[in-house]
Design goal:
6-stranded mixed beta sheet; 114 residues; 4-stranded antiparallel beta sheet
Length: 114
């Protein structure tokens, strides 16, 4: 089973940008959908964005217009470009395949603070 590993998090000021990467240990082309999720302290894990093999995308309302998800099957990578970040975006970000769920990885911490 392909393992998905997140990276790219960090500390950024409000209004700043980050790009997260979700890299597969093998080919991700067989995964119909790959999605990003996030979990803030004290909150449930929530859906952020999803991309399918055909390039269709879906976003949570709270990030629509600010975040962009994309995938590069040749690099076995799904990206999450996050612009105009807000303090409420602070969370641990995870990727997984909603069409073929696998054990959660360690995620990558995103902290938005001045």
């Amino acid at each position: 089973q392909v393992r998905l590993v997140e990276s790219g998090g960090g500390l950024v000021q409000p209004g700043g940008s980050l790009r997260l990467s979700c890299v597969g240990s093998g080919s991700i082309s067989s995964l119909y959908a790959v999605a990003w999720y996030r979990q803030a302290p004290g909150n449930e894990r929530e859906f952020v964005a999803r991309v399918t093999t055909g390039g269709s995308t879906n976003y949570a309302g709270s990030v629509k217009g600010r975040f962009t998800i994309s995938r590069d099957n040749a690099k076995n990578t799904v990206y999450l470009q996050m612009n105009n970040l807000k303090p409420e975006d602070t969370a641990v970000y995870y990727c997984n395949s909603p069409s073929s769920f696998r054990p959660w990885g360690q995620g990558t911490q995103v902290t938005v603070s001045s």
